[in-house]
Each structure stands twice: as structure tokens, then as C-alpha cells.
Specification:
The protein has one domain. 12% of the residues lie in helices and 25% in strands. The chain is an alpha+beta fold and 121 residues long. About 17% of the residues have low confidence. Keywords: Signal.
């Protein structure tokens, strides 16, 4: 039984996908009439090597402005709520296919918007 469990564990190791480098880029959906612009960031798989890049208040290992390639990629949308940051993606680096967290919510006009790090290189 132990031998069978070991063989199964080895087999499962070969069936998992490898982690990829993570690309990151800022996006902005322009304002439309009374709706304000929506700013966010996208993490995606990337074939370019990652390097240490300062994004807002944190330094992450990403390939900045890496183009998104492929089609039918799964999507993970992350919202930081009331005043968080767009940088929780570092928890998922290399594991999810595509993540798009918004910088702030245009729907919550009575809530102070989150800090905007899009102007920080």
C-alpha cells in the first residue's frame, strides 16, 4: 500500500503544471459619461524572465509590461475593497493564469477611493 501511494504521488508530481514568470501591466478603462475611469493592474503568464520591479510601495519579481499571449485564459478578478492595494497578486505569482484587480471602485462614490499607484514607475 505504501508503494502504491508513493507511485501515485510521483505520478501526480508529473501531472502538475510548472509555474511561469509573471507579467504585470497597468490598465485603464476610460471614463464614459458620468462613470469615472477604472484603473487596475493585470498579472499574466509571461515567457520573458522576471526581474525585481518596484510597483507602488512594494518590490515584486515580475516582467513589467509583458504582452498577454494565448487565448481562453482563465480569469481571477481580485477586488481590494475599501482602500487596499492592487498588489495582493504577489501571493499568486506564477499559479493563476490571469488576474485583474481594480485600483478603485467607481460604484462607491461615498467611499474614499484607494491610493492610485499608476503614476509610480
Amino acid at each position: 500500500m505504501i508503494r502504491l501511494s508513493f507511485i501515485l504521488a510521483v505520478f501526480l508530481c508529473f501531472t502538475t503544471s510548472l509555474a511561469h514568470a509573471v507579467g504585470f501591466q497597468f490598465i485603464e478603462v476610460p471614463a464614459d459619461g458620468p462613470l469615472t475611469a477604472l484603473k487596475g493592474g493585470i498579472w499574466s503568464p509571461c515567457t520573458r524572465p522576471a526581474s525585481e520591479v518596484k510597483l507602488g510601495p512594494v518590490v515584486m519579481s515580475v516582467a513589467k509590461d509583458c504582452p498577454i499571449s494565448g487565448d481562453k485564459l482563465p480569469l481571477v478578478a481580485i477586488s481590494h475593497g475599501r482602500g487596499g492595494t492592487i498588489y495582493p497578486g504577489r501571493l499568486f505569482q506564477g499559479h493563476a493564469r490571469l488576474k485583474i484587480p481594480p485600483l478603485r471602485s467607481a460604484a462607491l462614490s461615498d467611499v474614499e477611493p484607494a491610493r492610485d499607484y499608476s503614476a509610480i514607475p
